[in-house]
Design a protein that fits this description.
With 380 residues, this protein is α/β, with parallel strands linked by helices. The chain has a domain of 234 residues: 3-Layer(aba) Sandwich (Aspartate Aminotransferase, domain 2). It is built from 11 helices and 9 strands. The protein has a 7-stranded mixed sheet with strand order 1-7-6-5-4-2-3, with helices on both faces. The protein has a two-stranded antiparallel sheet with strand order 8-9. A hairpin with a 4-residue loop joins β8 and β9. α1 runs antiparallel to α9, α2 packs across α9 and α3 packs parallel to α4. The C terminus is likely disordered.
Length: 380
Protein backbone atom coordinates (compact mmCIF):
# COMPACT_ATOMS: atom_id res chain seq x y z
CA UNK A 1 0.00 0.00 0.00
CA UNK A 2 1.32 3.43 -0.89
CA UNK A 3 1.71 5.78 2.11
CA UNK A 4 1.00 9.43 1.33
CA UNK A 5 2.76 12.38 2.93
CA UNK A 6 -0.32 13.08 5.03
CA UNK A 7 -0.34 9.52 6.39
CA UNK A 8 3.25 8.99 7.38
CA UNK A 9 5.27 10.12 10.35
CA UNK A 10 7.35 13.22 9.67
CA UNK A 11 11.12 13.35 9.53
CA UNK A 12 12.29 15.74 12.23
CA UNK A 13 14.41 17.90 9.91
CA UNK A 14 13.97 16.93 6.28
CA UNK A 15 10.25 17.78 6.25
CA UNK A 16 10.80 21.35 7.48
CA UNK A 17 11.88 23.50 4.52
CA UNK A 18 12.33 26.68 6.57
CA UNK A 19 15.09 25.03 8.64
CA UNK A 20 18.12 24.96 6.32
CA UNK A 21 21.18 22.82 6.89
CA UNK A 22 23.32 24.06 9.75
CA UNK A 23 20.53 26.19 11.23
CA UNK A 24 18.95 25.46 14.61
CA UNK A 25 15.51 26.87 15.37
CA UNK A 26 15.07 27.40 19.11
CA UNK A 27 11.74 29.24 19.24
CA UNK A 28 9.29 26.36 18.92
CA UNK A 29 7.76 27.23 22.30
CA UNK A 30 6.58 30.47 20.71
CA UNK A 31 5.65 29.11 17.28
CA UNK A 32 6.67 25.97 15.42
CA UNK A 33 8.04 25.77 11.90
CA UNK A 34 5.73 24.16 9.36
CA UNK A 35 6.45 20.77 7.77
CA UNK A 36 6.18 20.30 4.03
CA UNK A 37 2.94 18.22 4.18
CA UNK A 38 1.16 21.09 5.95
CA UNK A 39 2.50 23.66 3.49
CA UNK A 40 1.45 21.46 0.56
CA UNK A 41 -1.99 20.80 2.04
CA UNK A 42 -2.60 24.53 2.51
CA UNK A 43 -1.46 25.31 -1.04
CA UNK A 44 -3.61 22.52 -2.44
CA UNK A 45 -6.66 23.63 -0.45
CA UNK A 46 -6.37 27.20 -1.68
CA UNK A 47 -5.22 26.37 -5.20
CA UNK A 48 -7.26 23.29 -6.12
CA UNK A 49 -10.11 22.38 -3.77
CA UNK A 50 -11.17 25.60 -2.03
CA UNK A 51 -14.84 26.26 -1.32
CA UNK A 52 -16.97 27.35 1.61
CA UNK A 53 -18.28 24.84 4.14
CA UNK A 54 -21.67 23.97 5.64
CA UNK A 55 -23.68 26.17 3.27
CA UNK A 56 -22.80 25.45 -0.36
CA UNK A 57 -25.14 23.40 -2.58
CA UNK A 58 -22.48 22.23 -5.02
CA UNK A 59 -20.09 19.30 -5.00
CA UNK A 60 -16.86 21.12 -4.18
CA UNK A 61 -18.46 22.77 -1.15
CA UNK A 62 -19.76 19.38 -0.03
CA UNK A 63 -16.28 17.89 -0.44
CA UNK A 64 -14.66 20.70 1.52
CA UNK A 65 -17.26 20.34 4.27
CA UNK A 66 -16.42 16.64 4.50
CA UNK A 67 -12.70 17.50 4.76
CA UNK A 68 -13.42 20.13 7.41
CA UNK A 69 -15.41 17.75 9.57
CA UNK A 70 -12.92 14.94 9.00
CA UNK A 71 -10.27 17.26 10.43
CA UNK A 72 -12.48 17.83 13.47
CA UNK A 73 -12.70 14.07 14.01
CA UNK A 74 -8.91 13.72 13.70
CA UNK A 75 -8.27 16.51 16.18
CA UNK A 76 -10.82 15.09 18.61
CA UNK A 77 -9.23 11.66 18.41
CA UNK A 78 -5.79 13.18 18.87
CA UNK A 79 -6.72 14.47 22.34
CA UNK A 80 -9.14 11.70 23.34
CA UNK A 81 -12.30 13.77 22.92
CA UNK A 82 -15.43 13.62 20.79
CA UNK A 83 -15.96 15.71 17.62
CA UNK A 84 -18.96 17.57 19.06
CA UNK A 85 -16.75 18.67 21.98
CA UNK A 86 -14.11 20.35 19.77
CA UNK A 87 -14.68 23.98 18.78
CA UNK A 88 -12.42 25.55 16.17
CA UNK A 89 -11.21 29.00 17.22
CA UNK A 90 -8.38 31.35 16.20
CA UNK A 91 -6.08 30.03 18.90
CA UNK A 92 -5.77 29.23 22.59
CA UNK A 93 -6.18 32.89 23.54
CA UNK A 94 -9.56 33.07 21.83
CA UNK A 95 -10.53 29.72 23.37
CA UNK A 96 -9.83 31.03 26.87
CA UNK A 97 -11.71 34.24 26.13
CA UNK A 98 -14.65 32.21 24.84
CA UNK A 99 -14.86 30.25 28.10
CA UNK A 100 -14.38 33.41 30.13
CA UNK A 101 -17.23 35.18 28.36
CA UNK A 102 -19.67 32.34 27.69
CA UNK A 103 -19.17 30.17 30.76
CA UNK A 104 -17.61 32.28 33.52
CA UNK A 105 -19.45 35.42 32.46
CA UNK A 106 -22.79 33.66 32.89
CA UNK A 107 -21.97 31.42 35.87
CA UNK A 108 -19.91 33.64 38.18
CA UNK A 109 -21.33 36.29 40.49
CA UNK A 110 -20.03 38.78 43.04
CA UNK A 111 -18.09 37.01 45.77
CA UNK A 112 -17.05 34.05 43.61
CA UNK A 113 -13.36 33.35 43.07
CA UNK A 114 -11.05 32.22 40.24
CA UNK A 115 -7.81 30.38 40.93
CA UNK A 116 -4.74 30.78 38.67
CA UNK A 117 -1.06 29.98 39.15
CA UNK A 118 2.05 32.11 39.22
CA UNK A 119 3.43 30.64 35.98
CA UNK A 120 0.46 31.34 33.69
CA UNK A 121 0.87 33.13 30.38
CA UNK A 122 -1.01 36.42 30.40
CA UNK A 123 -3.49 34.92 27.93
CA UNK A 124 -4.57 32.78 30.89
CA UNK A 125 -4.68 35.77 33.23
CA UNK A 126 -6.17 38.79 31.47
CA UNK A 127 -9.46 37.17 30.28
CA UNK A 128 -10.19 36.12 33.87
CA UNK A 129 -9.35 39.58 35.17
CA UNK A 130 -11.80 41.05 32.66
CA UNK A 131 -14.66 38.77 33.64
CA UNK A 132 -13.86 39.07 37.36
CA UNK A 133 -14.03 42.86 37.14
CA UNK A 134 -17.35 42.66 35.31
CA UNK A 135 -19.10 40.29 37.71
CA UNK A 136 -17.36 41.22 40.95
CA UNK A 137 -15.35 38.03 41.39
CA UNK A 138 -11.87 37.78 42.91
CA UNK A 139 -8.69 36.07 41.68
CA UNK A 140 -6.29 34.01 43.78
CA UNK A 141 -2.84 32.84 42.65
CA UNK A 142 -1.21 29.52 43.51
CA UNK A 143 2.53 29.85 44.24
CA UNK A 144 5.28 27.66 42.83
CA UNK A 145 7.34 25.01 44.57
CA UNK A 146 11.09 25.56 44.99
CA UNK A 147 11.65 23.63 41.73
CA UNK A 148 9.19 25.91 39.90
CA UNK A 149 6.15 23.68 39.64
CA UNK A 150 2.59 24.66 40.45
CA UNK A 151 2.31 23.90 44.16
CA UNK A 152 -0.68 21.56 44.32
CA UNK A 153 -0.39 21.21 48.09
CA UNK A 154 -0.76 24.98 48.36
CA UNK A 155 -3.63 24.81 45.87
CA UNK A 156 -5.39 22.25 48.07
CA UNK A 157 -5.05 24.55 51.08
CA UNK A 158 -6.28 27.60 49.13
CA UNK A 159 -9.37 26.10 47.50
CA UNK A 160 -12.73 27.09 48.97
CA UNK A 161 -16.34 26.59 47.90
CA UNK A 162 -16.26 30.16 46.54
CA UNK A 163 -13.84 29.03 43.84
CA UNK A 164 -15.85 28.35 40.70
CA UNK A 165 -13.04 28.08 38.14
CA UNK A 166 -9.39 27.00 38.17
CA UNK A 167 -7.24 27.78 35.08
CA UNK A 168 -3.73 26.30 34.84
CA UNK A 169 -1.04 25.49 32.26
CA UNK A 170 -0.40 21.82 31.51
CA UNK A 171 3.25 22.52 30.61
CA UNK A 172 5.03 25.81 31.29
CA UNK A 173 6.75 27.28 28.25
CA UNK A 174 9.08 29.17 30.57
CA UNK A 175 10.08 26.50 33.06
CA UNK A 176 9.18 23.25 31.31
CA UNK A 177 7.39 22.00 34.41
CA UNK A 178 4.49 19.61 33.90
CA UNK A 179 1.27 19.81 35.89
CA UNK A 180 -0.34 16.75 37.43
CA UNK A 181 -3.65 17.58 35.74
CA UNK A 182 -5.50 14.62 37.21
CA UNK A 183 -4.71 15.73 40.75
CA UNK A 184 -5.52 19.35 39.92
CA UNK A 185 -8.88 18.23 38.52
CA UNK A 186 -9.67 16.20 41.63
CA UNK A 187 -8.80 19.18 43.85
CA UNK A 188 -10.89 21.61 41.80
CA UNK A 189 -13.86 19.29 41.57
CA UNK A 190 -13.63 18.69 45.31
CA UNK A 191 -14.96 22.21 45.92
CA UNK A 192 -17.26 22.21 42.88
CA UNK A 193 -14.95 24.26 40.62
CA UNK A 194 -14.39 23.70 36.89
CA UNK A 195 -10.86 23.22 35.57
CA UNK A 196 -9.54 24.80 32.36
CA UNK A 197 -6.15 23.62 31.12
CA UNK A 198 -3.90 25.58 28.75
CA UNK A 199 -2.40 22.76 26.68
CA UNK A 200 -0.41 24.79 24.15
CA UNK A 201 2.96 23.37 25.18
CA UNK A 202 1.71 19.91 26.12
CA UNK A 203 -0.17 18.83 23.00
CA UNK A 204 2.87 18.93 20.66
CA UNK A 205 5.08 17.06 23.12
CA UNK A 206 3.13 14.38 24.95
CA UNK A 207 0.09 12.17 24.64
CA UNK A 208 -3.02 14.01 25.86
CA UNK A 209 -6.25 12.26 26.80
CA UNK A 210 -8.75 14.79 28.07
CA UNK A 211 -11.04 12.09 29.43
CA UNK A 212 -8.24 10.61 31.54
CA UNK A 213 -7.04 14.05 32.68
CA UNK A 214 -10.44 14.89 34.11
CA UNK A 215 -10.45 18.56 33.15
CA UNK A 216 -13.55 20.45 32.00
CA UNK A 217 -11.99 22.61 29.27
CA UNK A 218 -8.73 22.12 27.34
CA UNK A 219 -7.30 24.64 24.87
CA UNK A 220 -4.42 24.69 22.39
CA UNK A 221 -3.17 26.50 19.31
CA UNK A 222 -2.41 25.03 15.89
CA UNK A 223 0.71 27.08 15.18
CA UNK A 224 2.55 25.53 18.14
CA UNK A 225 1.45 22.11 16.86
CA UNK A 226 3.39 22.53 13.58
CA UNK A 227 0.12 23.55 11.94
CA UNK A 228 -1.17 26.82 10.45
CA UNK A 229 -1.46 30.09 12.32
CA UNK A 230 -4.87 31.51 13.14
CA UNK A 231 -6.43 28.19 14.17
CA UNK A 232 -6.83 26.49 17.53
CA UNK A 233 -9.14 24.27 19.51
CA UNK A 234 -11.37 24.57 22.53
CA UNK A 235 -12.33 21.19 23.93
CA UNK A 236 -15.13 21.28 26.47
CA UNK A 237 -17.35 18.77 28.17
CA UNK A 238 -20.47 18.36 26.04
CA UNK A 239 -22.87 19.30 28.82
CA UNK A 240 -20.95 22.50 29.56
CA UNK A 241 -20.80 23.58 25.92
CA UNK A 242 -24.47 22.81 25.47
CA UNK A 243 -25.40 25.12 28.35
CA UNK A 244 -23.24 28.02 27.12
CA UNK A 245 -24.64 30.90 25.03
CA UNK A 246 -22.99 31.81 21.70
CA UNK A 247 -19.74 33.77 21.68
CA UNK A 248 -20.53 35.68 18.47
CA UNK A 249 -23.50 35.86 16.12
CA UNK A 250 -23.96 35.13 12.43
CA UNK A 251 -22.99 32.51 9.90
CA UNK A 252 -22.98 28.83 10.72
CA UNK A 253 -23.83 29.30 14.41
CA UNK A 254 -27.53 29.82 13.63
CA UNK A 255 -30.35 27.30 13.53
CA UNK A 256 -33.24 29.48 12.38
CA UNK A 257 -33.34 33.27 11.98
CA UNK A 258 -36.37 35.55 11.92
CA UNK A 259 -36.65 39.22 12.83
CA UNK A 260 -38.63 38.17 15.86
CA UNK A 261 -36.27 35.49 17.17
CA UNK A 262 -33.13 33.49 16.39
CA UNK A 263 -32.36 29.99 17.55
CA UNK A 264 -28.83 28.64 17.64
CA UNK A 265 -27.08 25.55 16.35
CA UNK A 266 -25.86 22.97 18.84
CA UNK A 267 -22.16 22.88 19.78
CA UNK A 268 -19.61 22.99 18.35
CA UNK A 269 -20.95 25.09 15.45
CA UNK A 270 -22.79 27.36 17.92
CA UNK A 271 -19.38 28.84 18.70
CA UNK A 272 -18.07 29.03 15.11
CA UNK A 273 -19.69 32.21 13.82
CA UNK A 274 -18.95 33.46 10.32
CA UNK A 275 -16.89 31.74 7.66
CA UNK A 276 -14.33 29.66 9.54
CA UNK A 277 -10.62 29.34 8.84
CA UNK A 278 -11.35 26.44 6.47
CA UNK A 279 -7.84 25.85 5.21
CA UNK A 280 -6.40 26.27 8.70
CA UNK A 281 -8.69 23.50 9.95
CA UNK A 282 -7.59 21.20 7.12
CA UNK A 283 -3.92 21.84 7.96
CA UNK A 284 -4.51 21.34 11.67
CA UNK A 285 -6.30 18.06 11.05
CA UNK A 286 -3.36 16.83 9.00
CA UNK A 287 -0.96 17.66 11.82
CA UNK A 288 -3.14 15.81 14.31
CA UNK A 289 -2.84 12.70 12.17
CA UNK A 290 0.90 13.13 11.57
CA UNK A 291 1.75 13.76 15.21
CA UNK A 292 -0.30 10.78 16.28
CA UNK A 293 1.81 8.66 13.89
CA UNK A 294 5.18 9.64 15.28
CA UNK A 295 6.26 13.27 15.29
CA UNK A 296 6.44 13.01 19.07
CA UNK A 297 9.65 11.05 18.62
CA UNK A 298 11.22 14.53 18.51
CA UNK A 299 10.30 14.95 22.19
CA UNK A 300 13.45 13.26 23.56
CA UNK A 301 15.61 15.98 21.95
CA UNK A 302 14.93 18.59 24.66
CA UNK A 303 15.64 15.98 27.31
CA UNK A 304 19.12 15.54 25.85
CA UNK A 305 19.91 19.19 26.54
CA UNK A 306 20.41 19.15 30.34
CA UNK A 307 23.76 17.30 30.19
CA UNK A 308 25.09 20.14 28.02
CA UNK A 309 24.89 22.47 30.99
CA UNK A 310 25.84 19.97 33.71
CA UNK A 311 28.83 20.30 36.00
CA UNK A 312 31.74 21.91 34.20
CA UNK A 313 29.65 22.83 31.15
CA UNK A 314 27.32 25.65 32.17
CA UNK A 315 27.51 27.26 28.73
CA UNK A 316 28.24 24.40 26.33
CA UNK A 317 26.19 26.08 23.58
CA UNK A 318 26.89 29.77 22.84
CA UNK A 319 24.16 32.02 24.16
CA UNK A 320 22.17 29.16 25.72
CA UNK A 321 21.24 29.57 29.37
CA UNK A 322 20.29 26.72 31.72
CA UNK A 323 16.70 26.01 32.72
CA UNK A 324 15.34 26.79 36.16
CA UNK A 325 15.90 23.21 37.31
CA UNK A 326 18.30 20.49 36.20
CA UNK A 327 15.94 17.97 34.58
CA UNK A 328 12.75 19.52 33.22
CA UNK A 329 9.98 17.03 32.53
CA UNK A 330 9.21 18.84 29.30
CA UNK A 331 11.62 21.40 27.91
CA UNK A 332 10.16 22.91 24.74
CA UNK A 333 12.81 23.85 22.19
CA UNK A 334 13.69 27.50 21.93
CA UNK A 335 13.52 28.40 25.56
CA UNK A 336 16.59 30.27 26.58
CA UNK A 337 18.35 32.31 23.97
CA UNK A 338 21.01 34.59 25.38
CA UNK A 339 21.04 36.75 28.51
CA UNK A 340 18.49 39.51 29.16
CA UNK A 341 19.05 42.46 26.88
CA UNK A 342 21.28 40.52 24.50
CA UNK A 343 18.82 40.59 21.63
CA UNK A 344 16.89 43.26 19.80
CA UNK A 345 13.49 42.79 21.43
CA UNK A 346 10.51 40.40 20.72
CA UNK A 347 11.55 36.80 20.01
CA UNK A 348 14.26 34.26 20.49
CA UNK A 349 15.96 33.47 17.21
CA UNK A 350 18.33 30.86 15.85
CA UNK A 351 21.17 29.10 17.62
CA UNK A 352 23.75 31.42 16.08
CA UNK A 353 22.45 34.32 18.14
CA UNK A 354 21.17 36.31 15.17
CA UNK A 355 17.58 36.47 16.42
CA UNK A 356 16.04 38.98 18.81
CA UNK A 357 15.93 38.46 22.55
CA UNK A 358 13.35 36.69 24.73
CA UNK A 359 9.69 37.64 25.13
CA UNK A 360 10.07 39.54 28.40
CA UNK A 361 6.67 41.19 28.21
CA UNK A 362 4.87 37.83 28.07
CA UNK A 363 5.74 36.97 31.67
CA UNK A 364 6.56 40.09 33.74
CA UNK A 365 4.56 38.63 36.65
CA UNK A 366 6.74 35.49 36.57
CA UNK A 367 10.02 37.37 36.14
CA UNK A 368 9.16 39.23 39.34
CA UNK A 369 8.76 35.98 41.27
CA UNK A 370 11.31 35.72 44.11
CA UNK A 371 13.77 32.91 43.60
CA UNK A 372 13.20 32.47 39.88
CA UNK A 373 16.56 31.69 38.31
CA UNK A 374 18.23 33.80 35.63
CA UNK A 375 17.49 32.65 32.10
CA UNK A 376 13.87 31.72 32.83
CA UNK A 377 12.54 34.48 30.58
CA UNK A 378 11.57 32.14 27.75
CA UNK A 379 9.32 32.91 24.80
CA UNK A 380 5.59 32.92 25.40
Amino acid sequence: MTVTAAERALDVLADFPAIPAGWAYLDTAATAQKPRPVIDAIARAYGETYATVHRGVYQRSADMTLAYEAARRRVAGFIGGQPDECVFVRGATEAINLVAQCWAGTQLKAGDRILLSQLEHHSNIVPWQMVAERVGAAIDVVPLTPDQRIDLDAMAAMLRPEHKLVALAHVSNVLGSVLDVRRAADLAHGVGAKLLIDGCQAVPRMAVDVAALGCDFYVFSGHKLYGPTGIGVLWGRAELLDAMPPYQGGGSMIDRVTFARTTYAPPPTRFEAGTPHIVGVVGLGLMGASLAMGLRRAAPAPRRLPPLWGAGQPRALPGLLPPGRPEPRSAPPGHRQGPPGAGRGGDAGDARGSGPGPHFRDRPHLLATPGLPPGSDAPG
